[in-house]
Write a structure and sequence with these properties.
The complex is a heterodimer of chains A (about 350) and B (about 600). Chain A is mostly helical. Chain A has a domain of about 200 residues: MetI-like fold, CATH 1.10.3720.10. Chain A contains 16 helices and two strands. Chain A has a two-stranded antiparallel ribbon. In chain A, helix 2 runs antiparallel to helix 16, helix 6 packs across helix 11 and helix 6 packs antiparallel against helix 13. Chain A is globular, with a radius of gyration of 24 Å. Chain A starts with a helix and ends in a 7-residue tail after the last helix. With about 600 residues, chain B is an alpha+beta fold. In chain B, helix 5 packs across helix 6, helix 12 packs antiparallel against helix 14 and helix 20 packs antiparallel against helix 21. Chain B is globular. The chains are: A mainly alpha (about 350), B alpha+beta (about 600).
Chain lengths: ~350, ~600
């Protein structure tokens, strides 16, 4: 097992160099004057400046391979460069925005994954019965709804009308405490930091801000997991060993939990892994609608503004995340299915 | 289990209901802007409105527009406005003496001195970050545009890759040239201008973030230029993020910068109680950036925002909201213009110029160099339809490149109207009738996302194509980055751009629109540069040096007439602006000169 993990981790730098090289090749297709749009973001900002001076100042006229080598050299010194669109070093931008995304993912992962599996199990157990149709219809409506539409509906009802779940990560009063008071940021996650600072009021405020995006994510993604769980369970339910288990006289509960669900979990684990990756990668639309400043919005803004240092930095980060989460999923296979051996 | 779930649900409901919603906090003003926060908080580099909005609250200038009125300049950190009459301006207009107010405190607690004022401007000039606003000091004080030009004046080469290549003696001479322009004399600051420059006082007035006054000692303690004549190059043209004031501030303004929360895209301010005019009415202020309009709108309705940014095209959405006030028709000093490129590269530009020949399938390089073509296009545009249907009446049709709210604009100047008969007449004369016979196909460009400009071009497209079936106009949307790239090589046959004033003087429009070295000439090809040298340069340069208003009027009237007669471009909109706020917001003062949407010093909240 350890050898397997080590081998996979050794592969990590190759993947990272590959993805960053790919991004750099794509960026090198842009001219220096296209890249300078990072610094002059709109026609209104095009004042008395010389574009050539800006190109020269930021080294945008250097050949792409020179810029890539410089970037690599800095990378080895732990410097990912400066992001103009985030107004801070790339490393700092990721370090500040990622905890917000982790926090959202942590709150979302239980309702998303377990809710989806639960709904899928209900559907499978009540195959072609009204409950199956009901749960599938409910989930598929969510899947069909554009995320920004559902998010906006939630925001309008729960914030605009009821005033319960406001956008952003914290209310203004709490933001003021966190940003200007003695509040210590240990993790960057407001719920955790507020408890560590002994501020339950800020904890509740942070939770209030998380509920609507979590409901949105959960509802939108349940259908996907429901379908996978349902079909996988239906397939397993017809296996000989399930019939044997029932013939042995085991209760339906034991058959369902031990013999069916566990064996049906392998494809679910694969899908859940990609869902967790999706959550950790940031959900741009949900972050936009709820003004939840996570890493997804950071990356999208950087890409819109051709902020290539940020794009490279986040690509590197996502690459790392992808490899590590896939590794965890592979390890989970072995836990779920004893037949899987990692060697 | 069910009981537990019910209990949990009840707790959640109580918690939600007990949460403070629809709160009214009379001491905090929250403005929620759209996408795009400040680029820098350093006055030497700040040249965008989002950054200017922050600096407006934190710093003071030497002068201010009284009640925001552009024609009423009063003292701010100065105690008097220099005029020839009060003896503070020399007869020739080249020397200005500015007495500095005593007893003014910085946020740090230090007291303002004339040395601080001198340091503020000299540091900013020596820093001269590329793309920054410091040309506004170089032009009046030294007759050049950049520190590179000053180095060239000092005997060096201005074309260096890195300033370390420049000889130390040259650097010292360059410093001396800059330092000689601003001197301290007792409690006064003396500006020595190279030539008379009537709007120089405007450059030093509120709204000019570049002329914010900083504290010398605090700056040095925080790592800025140490004031030595021999070390300044170390701080020359730094990357924005390396500049001392990039994300911190210490001014004499009514609000202190608490924090620029970049990851949260918000800036928090608190009242400066020792402000020399007396403390502001509100205690805290926040500027947040939220790109999504629906979210901003809900925040306004909930009272979490006191004012929000809403684009002109979205204004109808908020007009009917309860308890929301829309203040519109606010005049701006701005102009939106359709430009023609006089020399268009053909190779590699086929998507816009087609065959590159006058054969009905494209346009030749010099297509818009023919005045008849430009006039025909100008007569093809339906100005009224655009103003009423697209801009929803928010503005006026121009009479030239200089906005009518500025002085020295001939509002009686005969201008183009929507007249397809005249347009056809000019098209027939173009290229000795060949154009009318063969037709043409051209791509005209807007930057994607700007739907107002897209619609303007579609109006032009519709009308031009209706004149002759052989005329084909394609409206092309390009990403801003590509537009920028094509502007640099003057490859866009037709494009739309706007210009928002830096300071309220005719000169600030005459240069970019008409001078051969102006911002737009370079984007319109060598043909326009050559024409501008003959038709405009001399007059533009004379206009800024003239101190007699009658003489200036004569010069700018002539420039306007030539621009219109030659149909250099097609100015088609002088837009007004608007503000959207809750009805409890009081004390709103508007000035076209301010970058700030709201002056936190004057606003306050009073629940109705």
């Amino acid at each position: 097992m350890l050898t397997y993990i080590a081998r996979r981790l050794l592969f990590l730098p190759v993947v990272l160099i590959g993805v960053t090289l790919l991004v750099f090749v794509a960026m090198s297709l842009l001219s220096p004057y296209q890249l300078v749009s990072t610094y002059i973001k709109s026609p209104e900002e095009l004042k008395n400046q010389s574009l050539d001076d800006l190109v020269r100042k930021y080294g945008l006229d250097q050949p792409a391979h020179v810029r890539y080598m410089n970037w690599m050299k800095n990378l080895f010194r732990g410097d990912l460069g400066y992001s103009v669109s985030a107004s801070m070093p790339v490393k700092e931008a990721i370090a500040r925005r990622f905890p917000a995304t982790i926090e959202l993912a942590l709150f979302a992962v239980i309702p998303v994954v377990f809710g989806g599996i639960w709904l899928g199990t209900i559907s499978a157990k009540n195959y072609n019965k009204p409950l199956d149709h009901l749960s599938r219809t409910f989930a598929i409506i969510g899947w069909s709804l554009p995320d920004f539409v559902f998010g906006l509906i939630l925001l309008m009802v729960f914030y605009g009308v009821l005033g319960w779940f406001p956008p952003g990560r914290l209310s203004m009063w709490a933001d003021t405490v966190v940003l200007t008071g003695d509040f210590v940021r240990y993790t960057g996650m407001n719920t955790v930091d507020s408890l560590l600072n002994g501020r339950p009021d800020i904890f509740w405020d942070a939770v209030r801000h998380l509920i609507a995006p979590v409901i949105t994510l959960a509802y939108l993604w349940w259908a996907y997991l429901l379908r996978i769980t349902r079909s996988s369970m239906l397939e397993v339910m017809n296996k000989d060993y399930v019939r044997t288990a029932r013939a042995k006289g085991l209760t339906e509960k034991v058959v369902a939990n031990r013999h069916i669900r566990r064996n049906a979990m392998i494809p679910v684990a694969t899908v859940s892994g990609s869902m967790v990756l999706g959550l950790l990668g940031g959900v741009v639309i949900v972050e936009t609608v709820f003004d939840y400043k996570g890493i997804g919005l950071l990356t999208a803004t950087g890409a819109q503004q051709l902020d290539y240092t940020l794009i490279l930095g986040t690509t590197l980060f996502y690459g790392m995340l992808l490899v590590l989460i896939n590794l965890v999923v592979d390890l989970l296979y072995a836990v779920i299915d004893p037949r899987v051996r990692l060697e | 289990m069910k009981r537990k779930l019910f209990g949990l649900f009840t707790v959640l409901l109580v918690f939600c209901l007990s949460a403070s919603v629809f709160a009214f906090d009379p001491e905090t003003f929250v403005y929620v802007a759209g996408a795009g926060g400040p680029q820098t908080l350093d006055p030497a580099a700040c040249y965008d409105t989002a950054s200017g909005e922050v600096l407006h609250q934190v710093y003071d200038n030497l002068f201010e527009y009284v009640d925001g009125q552009l024609d009423a300049i009063g003292p701010m950190l100065a105690t008097e406005v220099p005029t020839v009459a009060n003896g503070l301006m020399s007869e020739d207009g080249r020397t200005l003496r500015v007495p500095i107010r005593e007893g003014v405190k910085f946020h740090s607690g230090a007291t303002l001195t004339p040395e601080d004022v001198q340091y503020s401007f000299i540091r900013a000039m020596l820093a001269d970050p590329a793309g920054g606003p410091m040309w506004m000091f170089f032009e009046p004080l030294l007759g050049v545009q950049t520190m590179r030009d000053v180095i060239a004046m000092a005997g060096g080469s201005g074309d260096f890759a890195d300033i370390s290549e420049v000889d130390a003696d040259v650097l010292r001479k360059a410093y001396d040239l800059v330092a000689a322009t601003i001197e301290v004399d007792g409690q006064d600051i003396v500006f020595n201008l190279v030539d008379p420059y009537p709007p120089f006082i405007n450059i030093l007035t509120t709204g000019g973030s570049w002329s914010s006054v900083v504290e010398k000692d605090w700056m040095i303690a925080n790592g800025a230029w140490d004031g030595s004549p021999d070390t300044w190059a170390k701080w020359y043209d730094q990357a924005l993020e390396d500049m001392t004031l990039y994300d911190k501030a210490n001014g004499t303004g009514p609000f202190k910068l608490d924090t620029w929360d970049k990851s949260g895209a918000q800036i928090l301010f608190s009242r400066f109680d020792d402000y020399w005019k007396g403390p502001a009415k509100i205690k805290n202020a926040v500027i947040k950036n939220i790109p999504e309009l629906a979210t901003r709108q809900l925040m306004l309705r909930a009272g979490d925002a006191d004012a929000i940014y809403v684009g002109q095209e979205d204004l109808p959405q908020v007009r009917t909201l309860p308890d929301v006030v829309v203040v519109d028709g606010l005049p701006q000093v701005t102009n939106t213009v359709l430009f023609y490129s006089f020399t268009i590269p053909v190779e590699g530009n086929e998507d816009l110029v087609g065959s590159g020949k006058l054969d009905g399938n494209g346009i030749p390089s010099d297509f818009f160099a023919d005045t008849n073509v430009r006039k025909a296009f100008n007569y093809s545009f339906d100005y009224d339809a655009f103003l009423q249907e697209v801009a929803l009446g928010a503005g006026v049709t121009p009479v030239g490149p200089i906005p009518q709210s500025l002085p020295y604009v001939n509002t009686e100047q005969e201008y183009y109207t929507h007249d397809l008969a005249k347009a056809a007449e000019y098209f027939k004369q173009a290229f000795d009738g060949e154009l009318w016979e063969k037709g043409f196909e051209v791509g005209i460009v807007y930057n994607t996302g700007n739907n107002t400009r897209k619609t303007a071009l579609e109006i032009l497209e519709y009308n031009v194509e209706s004149i002759n079936p052989k005329f084909k106009v394609n409206v092309v949307g390009l990403e801003w980055a590509t537009v920028l790239d094509k502007l640099r090589s003057a490859s866009l046959p037709v494009f739309v751009m706007g210009w928002l004033m830096d300071f309220p003087d005719t000169h600030n429009f005459a240069v970019p629109f008409m001078h051969s070295t102006g911002t737009f000439a370079g984007f319109c090809g060598q043909g326009l540069i050559d024409l501008a040298k003959v038709e405009f340069d001399e007059l533009v340069e004379a206009g800024i040096k003239a101190t007699d208003p009658a003489e200036r009027e004569e010069i700018y009237f002539e420039l306007q007439k030539r621009y219109v007669d030659l149909a250099i471009g097609m100015p088609f909109m002088e837009a007004t602006t608007h503000r959207v706020m809750r009805d409890w917001v009081q004390g709103f003062v508007y000035s076209p000169a301010y970058s700030a949407n709201y002056d936190f010093y004057t606003v306050y909240k009073e629940q109705k």
